[in-house]
Design a protein that fits this description.
alpha/beta, 7 helices, 7-stranded mixed beta sheet, 23% helix, Rossmann fold, 218 residues, 12 strands
C-alpha cells in the first residue's frame, strides 16, 4: 500500500498524482447551488486537480482557482485551460480583488489565519462557504476509510484510504487542527465574519456527519 502526505510547506508529488487518479465528483451539493446564486467569478480555495472544479465549470460556473501544490495546478491547467489558476498558500494570498462568493470544499480553512485571508477576499455582502472535518465524528473513531491515529480536542492525526480505479489503495497522512461547531460563532468573529448557516451532510444530523458546512458573511 502506497502512502502520501499532505504538507503545503513541502508538496508531495505523490499527493497530486493520487488526486489526479480520483474520479470527478458527480454530486456538487452544496457548491453548485451556492455558485449559481452568486455574481461570477467564484474564488475556489484548494482547487486541487479539479475533482469539483471541473464539473462546476462544465455546469457554467466561472472560477478563479487557488492551490499551493504546483503538481495539482499543473494537472488542472490541462483540464481548465481558460480558468485563472493561482499558486499560493491561502495564508499568503493577496489577489487585490474581492468576490461575491468564496468556497473551500475541503478541510483547509481550519486555521484562523487562512480564514481571515479568505474573508479579506469577500466583497461587501459576499459569502464564504467551506467544509470542515467534524470533530464529533473524529472523536468517535472516524470510519469509511478514515482512521484517527491521535485526537486531543485541538487537533487530529489521520490516515485516509483512497481506493483507485485500478484497484490500488493509497493512504493519505494528514494532521489537522480542530474547529468545533459549538465554537463557530466566536471563531468566525475572530475573522470579521458572521454565521449564516451551518449544517451536516444530507440525511445526517450535524453531530453524526463526517464533515459539516459553514456559510458565513462579512
Amino acid at each position: 500500500m502506497a502512502s502520501v502526505r499532505d504538507d503545503p510547506s513541502q508538496p508531495d508529488a505523490g499527493f497530486a498524482e493520487l488526486y489526479a487518479q480520483l474520479p470527478d465528483e458527480t454530486d456538487l451539493w452544496p457548491w453548485l447551488e451556492l455558485a449559481q446564486g452568486a455574481t461570477p467569478p467564484v474564488l475556489y480555495l484548494g482547487v486541487g486537480t479539479g475533482r469539483v472544479a471541473v464539473p462546476l465549470s462544465a455546469a457554467g460556473i466561472e472560477l478563479v482557482g487557488v492551490d499551493s501544490h504546483p503538481g495539482m495546478l499543473e494537472r488542472l491547467r490541462d483540464r481548465l485551460a481558460r480558468t485563472e489558476l493561482i499558486q499560493s498558500r491561502i495564508e499568503d494570498l493577496k489577489l487585490g480583488r474581492r468576490f461575491d462568493l468564496v468556497i473551500a470544499p475541503s478541510n483547509i480553512l481550519y486555521l484562523v489565519e487562512r480564514l481571515r485571508r479568505a474573508a479579506d477576499h469577500l466583497a461587501d455582502g459576499g459569502t464564504l462557504a467551506f467544509e470542515l472535518a467534524n470533530p464529533h465524528w473524529l472523536r468517535a473513531g472516524g470510519g469509511d476509510g478514515v482512521r484517527v491515529r491521535a485526537f486531543d480536542g485541538n487537533g487530529a492525526r489521520l490516515e485516509v484510504d483512497y481506493r483507485l480505479p485500478n484497484g490500488r489503495t493509497i493512504t493519505q497522512h494528514a494532521e489537522v487542527a480542530i474547529v468545533w461547531p459549538e465554537e463557530m460563532d466566536n471563531w468566525l468573529t475572530a475573522a470579521g465574519l458572521r454565521l449564516q448557516r451551518m449544517f451536516g451532510q444530507p440525511d445526517a444530523e450535524l453531530r453524526d456527519s463526517p464533515s459539516f458546512y459553514v456559510v458565513a458573511s462579512r
